[in-house]
Amino acid sequence: MPEAKETVLEINLGNLAHNYRFLRSKIDKDVKFLSVVKAHAYGSDSVVIAKKLEELGTDYFAVAYVEEGVRLRKHGITKPILVLHPQFTHFEEIIEHCLEPNLYSEKILQSFIITAERLKQKNYPVHIKLNTGLNRLGFDQPEIKKVRELITSNKTVRIASVFSHLAASEDWKERDFTVGQIDLFRKMTWELIKDLDYEPLLHICNTSGLLNYPKAAFSMVRSGIGLYGYGNDANIDPHLKPVGTLKTIISQIRQLDPGATVGYNRVFKVEKPSRIATLPIGHADGINRIYGKQKAGVYVNGKYAPIVGNVCMDIIMIDVTGIECEEGDEVVVFGGPQHPVKLAEAGGTISYELITGVQRRVTRRIIQE
Ligand SMILES: *Cc1c(COP(=O)(O)O)cnc(C)c1O
């Protein structure tokens, strides 16, 4: 099946729509849905994905950094965009592009208010992050009074939402801790917003949060990995469809006799007559060295072929002995017969890292719904 002509990441928008509808069906109709499209929409294509999600009816977007949000605005995305991890050097750009910052510390909150005042803003929407146990970004409980004072003492900004992030929403062994985070969020939020004359959105659930703690959906959920087809749970995964499929082709095949070695540092030693195929994909495309030395493999015409020797920058070699194939044939690296979670596990990592690791030089091919 000589379909691919190079290494391509296929992005299936029908699968995205399926996942969106599945996740939405797990929460009440009046709960808003924020789609997380940071890191090129988890390694795919943030503009294409965001446009499709707008069409599907998502209420909000989130990105990690300001430039990711600017890119979406430049491509016509109009829904609100929360920037999860802004730096104060980018505050003017945030306002210029109608992005909404997560303000997570006193310093960053004060500094944003100063910029917004200077640019003559009124009621500019901002998001307040509370730390409930992840200990990453956010205000701690003793700081809430100060946050309330800073925000209510002038009309420059308004709290569009108050949120927090769960540390182990996918892990049932940490259920008590998670329930504790949710309770603390409720308390801290109340302290912060009780005297406001408007009602900010409240949200704490990521994908596993909304699946495992749907009662804690509050007024919005934030989903990333689920949209891309992964449920962090073997029982959920069958209900979701991976959006990305990474394919490549066979560039060359050679027959080798015992005694030959393959690749850098002669790591793979041929012990029986073998057919070795060379593929145009390597660690600079996102298939890291950890997958080499037969730790993982790919699929050629439906059959598993292990990666032999060291992964090179732009090339891997695979053992296709006994597999019917020829130069130019398509190879599936992940997706289809190889669930990406399985490949990630073979490399000692998780779906998030595998899919966000697919580098920009890999061609993206969009498959419409
Ligand atoms: C990345 C991120 C998410 C998305 O989490 P998933 O597990 O991918 O659903 C949600 N909230 C915050 C704060 C994040 O950084």
Layout of strands and helices, then pairs:
Elements: E1 8-12, H1 13-24, E2 32-36, H2 38-43, H3 46-56, E3 60-63, H4 66-74, E4 81-83, H5 91-96, E5 100-103, H6 106-118, E6 124-129, H7 144-152, E7 157-163, H8 175-193, E8 201-203, H9 207-212, E9 220-223, E10 244-249, E11 252-256, E12 261-262, E13 268-269, E14 274-279, E15 297-300, E16 303-308, E17 316-319, E18 330-334, H10 340-346, H11 351-356, E19 363-367
Parallel strand pairs: 1-19, 2-3, 2-9, 3-4, 4-5, 5-6, 6-7, 7-8
Antiparallel strand pairs: 1-10, 10-18, 11-14, 12-13, 14-17, 15-16, 15-18, 16-17
Bound molecules: pyridoxal-5'-phosphate.
Can I get a quick summary?
This protein is an alpha/beta fold.
What does this structure look like?
- With 369 residues, the chain is of the alpha/beta class.
- It has two domains: 31-223, Alpha-Beta Barrel (TIM Barrel), CATH 3.20.20; 244-367, Lyase, Ornithine Decarboxylase, Chain A, domain 1, CATH 2.40.37.
- Helices cover 28% and strands 23% of the residues.
- The protein has eleven helices and 19 strands.
- The strands form three sheets. It has a nine-stranded mixed sheet.
- A hairpin with a 7-residue loop joins strand 16 and strand 17 (316-319).
- Helix 1 packs across helix 3 (46-56).
- The longest helix has 19 residues, at 175-193.
- The two termini are 23 Å apart.
- The model has no long low-confidence stretch (mean pLDDT 97).
- The chain binds pyridoxal-5'-phosphate.
- Pyridoxal-5'-phosphate (PLP) binds next to strand 9.
